[in-house]
Design goal:
about 250 residues; alpha/beta; L-arginine/glycine Amidinotransferase, Chain A; 6 helices; binds glycine
Length: about 250
Amino acid sequence: MFQHTIVRTPCKNVLEGITSAPELGKPDYEKALQQHACYIEALKQCGVDVTVLPANDEYPDSCFVEDVAVLTRKCAIITNPGAPSRNGETAGIIDAVKKFYTDIEYIRNPGTLEGGDVMMVGDTFYVGRSARTNAEGIRQFGEILNKYGFECVEVPLEKVLHLKTGVNYIENNNLLVSGEFIEKECFQKFNHIVIPESEAYAANCIWMNGTVIVPEGFPTVLKAVQDAGYPTITVDTSEFRKIDGGLSCLSLRF
Ligand code: GLY
């Protein structure tokens, strides 16, 4: 169960966030703020406290706090984002993390790693080797995890930005799985809830203490999650989608 979450208010420069989908247009800032407020309410409904960090205009993507740290039940790992425009974001998370953790580890150059590439399943951490997370980053991450008794499983990515863009664990052995991850050997032991290509964005749902938060506007995924027995909350993330952001990217949950 999660007790805590950390989020960061989107900054005005969120309009300049990295995107692979410019055809969706730029985020509307006011709408992004409203959606972020609804997201915070959804987290609170799931019984966690929410630490809200202030907007940081220096980093357009800084509301995607998931990428700058991996918070386990034993230690915090400050990452080293592979996107050059995001690399400095880690400095802004350390003080917040120190309020909750004494054991803090770091991914260091030349290793890169982003939290969106890390999926926790109990004491096993699946890590996507992606354009943002490199082999050295995964090596360092595995070494840290092993020190705390955790296991690290590398998953090579072919198409998507982050591992959790396309695959997300929602407990009870259930995995939301899309595209390139459907056939991956390392995920065959899970019950697959297969996400249709037309709703691929909604592979990125988050399990929050028994409830699953689902992005608004994806009826097939919503029904599949409900049919699997979960209560759900929907949150509109249309403005974050425009800059490749999903539900998980917007918080650290621990
Ligand atoms: N815009 C989110 C990311 O590229 O990290």
